[in-house]
Amino acid sequence: xxxxxxxxxxxxxxxxxxxxxxxxxxxxxxxxxxxxxxxxxxxxxxxxxxxxxxxxxxxxxxxxxxxxxxxxxxxxxxxxxxxxxxxxxxxxxxxxxxxxxxxxxxxxxxxxxxxxxxxxxxxxxxxxxxxxxxxxxxxxxxxxxxxxxxxxxxxxxxxxx
Length: 161
Prior knowledge:
By secondary structure, this protein is α/β, with parallel strands linked by helices. It has one domain (2-158): D-tyrosyl-tRNA(Tyr) deacylase (D-tyrosyl-trna(Tyr) Deacylase, Chain: A). It has three helices and eight strands. A hairpin with a 2-residue loop joins strand 1 (2-15) and strand 2 (18-23). Helix 1 packs across helix 3 (99-115). The chain is globular and about 45 Å long.
C-alpha cells in the first residue's frame, strides 16, 4: 500500500456536489492499494498514520503524533498512486489491485483506525471526488508498506515479506 499523508488544519471531500467527509486538525490520507497487498500492509499503515510524530510541540518541533493531539483522519482511496509513468505518455495502472480487493483493504484500514479510537471520515470508494485541504506546514509524507526501511530499520508487521 502507498499513502500520501498530509498534515492539515482542515480537509473535506465532495462527491456530486455533496460533502461526504470533513475533518478539522489531523491528517488527509490518500491511499492506494497494490496487487499483492494484504492485511499486514494495512496494519502497518494504521500504525504509521496514528503514531508518526509529525505534529508540532510547544517548541515547534515535530514531536507529536495524531494520537497525541487527538486529531482526525480523512481517508480517501486513490488508485493513481500506483500509476507508473516511466514509459510513454499514458500512466499504467497494472500495479493497482483490482477494485474489490482494494475496497476490502481500504475498508480494513478504516475499520482498524476507528477500532483504535481514531475519528475517521472517508471519501466514496471509486467515485469521482473533489478533495479540499488546508495543508499545515506544508507537511507531506509518502509511506509505502513495502519499503518500511525508509522509516525504520525493521517492522514486526512486515515479517511476511
